[in-house]
Amino acid sequence: MTQANIGVVGLAVMGSNLARNLASREGNTVAIFNRSYEKTQTLLDEHPEAGFLPAADYAEFAATLSKPRTAIIMVQAGRGTDAVIDELVKVFEPGDIIVDGGNALFTDTIRREKAVRETGINFVGAGISGGEEGALNGPSIMPGGSDESWVTLGPILKSIAAVAEGEPCVTHVGHDGAGHFVKMIHNGIEYADMQLIAEAYDLIRRGTGKSPAEIADIFAEWNRGELESYLIEITAEVLRQVDAETGAPLVDVILDQAGAKGTGAWTVQSALDLGIPVSGIAEAVFARSLSSKPAQRAAAAELPGPSDAWTVADPDAFVEDVRRALYASKIVAYSQGFDEIVAGAEQYGWDIKKGEIAKIWRGGCIIRAQFLNRITDAYDADPGLVALLTAPYFRDALVDSQEAWRRVVVAATQAGIPSPAFSSSLSYYDGLRAERLPAALVQGQRDFFGAHTYKRIDKDGTFHTLWSGDRTEVQAVDSH
Ligand code: 6PG
Q: Is 183 a catalytic residue?
């Protein structure tokens, strides 16, 4: 009997496309299974060239796979994933490999990996980015799981991944949930990047009066420079699109309430737990939430804004300022995302190579961008780099942009145009570079009302002040 070296469970669009991608690569024979056979049949009918081996149930699916059996689950993240894992565990054997290719929460992946490992079967959480098109033609893949599973899985994933500068966009990120953790950060950065681009568009449109089509040209032009990226490229296309029904720019017809499936919120929740300030990403998540509050927005529409109408004096200069502000803020978003990767790796004991992550994001994924090479260079030059923004290339870019960045944030504030991601990124930058922060006052307040103690700049130890009376009485206390 012909056997398959890889199987796919779940044949919705992402699963079907991934199965077709696998089948199109030399050396792969792909087994397919879906809960309802109808989808399996459709895929077989539509793609006879793929040579799929269909299975009607889990037992047949397992029998169709050569050992070690390797199956990629492509179902909606959540309970469906657990149900499929339970079924696969029943028919798989020790040494086999179950891969979850959905957008699972990394703590679920850690839990599942632990439970599945007890059966001797390998469980791999793999982040897969690139949407439907990427799944079909080459995604960026972020697998976690054991070293043993990577031996079998590595060549298969390399065969289907996007290729950037001759290298496949996949690496073994780290053990158990590391892959899904890094995919989560990818999505957090994606949220920030999208919000920053949206703010840039809004400022240019409202400041210069240019049409969406004219702004599309600006983005297309930016895509030829240091901002070159998939998101800038598709932004030009979205802005150029005309609504077939009304003839208006499509962007003006789309309801301005942004949806979210939750991965951006996870990035922020995890950052809060880890104590990492991912303020640009958080503002991007909150901007979507704010947009999706129609009742509050309608009620607040009455509130006053600036009295003077706003137009910029020199549109070309303003557009260039916005470009620089976008670049600087984008550097902050990536820097914050990588800080979270470093903190997560430390917390969960993963050996994540930051430069490798930047490399596998150069192709296939939604945040693919030219400047990821610069991030790899920065971490290669200094693996212990404490803040990406301080690497020479990014430092120079910030030196070049920071004045434009300030002008843009000032203009937005004065004009009453929301720019949460631009503004918070600039505040983050100023916060990090500040010689002294008002955190000293916060420490004083904490000590005042709760005897929470503080440290001093002039000597070691932990101190508490007896706050009553004119004179400060300071006590050294045991640290706690
Ligand atoms: C990707 C995308 C993908 C998906 C997001 C969108 O890397 O291919 O990130 O995972 O498009 O889940 O998320 P929202 O619906 O939350 O914007």
A: yes
Instruction: Calculate the CA 115 to chain-centre distance.
Output: 27
Residue 122 C-alpha to ligand 1 middle, in angstroms? Answer: 26
C-alpha of residue 187 to centroid of ligand 1, in Å = 6
Catalytic residue among 113, 114, 118, 183: 183
Ligand 1 atom closest to 139 (CA)? 8
Probe target for ligand 1 pocket from 186, 229, 263, with the most ligand atoms within 8 Å of CB? 263
β-bridge mates for residue 31, sequence order = 7, 53
- Please report the DSSP string for 404-438 in residue order: HHHHHHHHHHHHT---HHHHHHHHHHHHHH-SS-T
Q: pLDDT in tens for each of the 480 residues of the chain? A: 789 999 999 999 999 999 999 999 999 999 999 999 999 999 999 999 999 999 999 999 999 999 999 999 999 988 899 999 999 999 999 999 999 999 999 999 999 999 999 999 999 999 999 999 999 999 999 999 999 999 999 999 999 999 999 999 999 999 999 999 999 999 999 999 999 999 999 999 999 999 999 999 999 999 999 999 999 999 999 999 999 999 999 999 999 999 999 999 999 999 999 999 999 999 999 999 999 999 999 999 999 999 888 889 999 999 999 999 999 999 999 999 999 999 999 999 999 999 999 999 999 999 999 889 999 999 999 999 999 999 999 999 999 999 999 999 999 999 999 999 999 999 999 999 999 999 999 999 999 999 999 999 999 999 999 997 666 677 788 654
User: Does the CB atom of residue 5 touch ligand 1 within 6 A?
Assistant: no
Is 293 a residue of the active site? Answer: no
Are the CB atoms for 449 and 356 separated by under 8 Å?
A: no
Within 241-278, residue ranges assigned H as helices are 250-253, 263-274
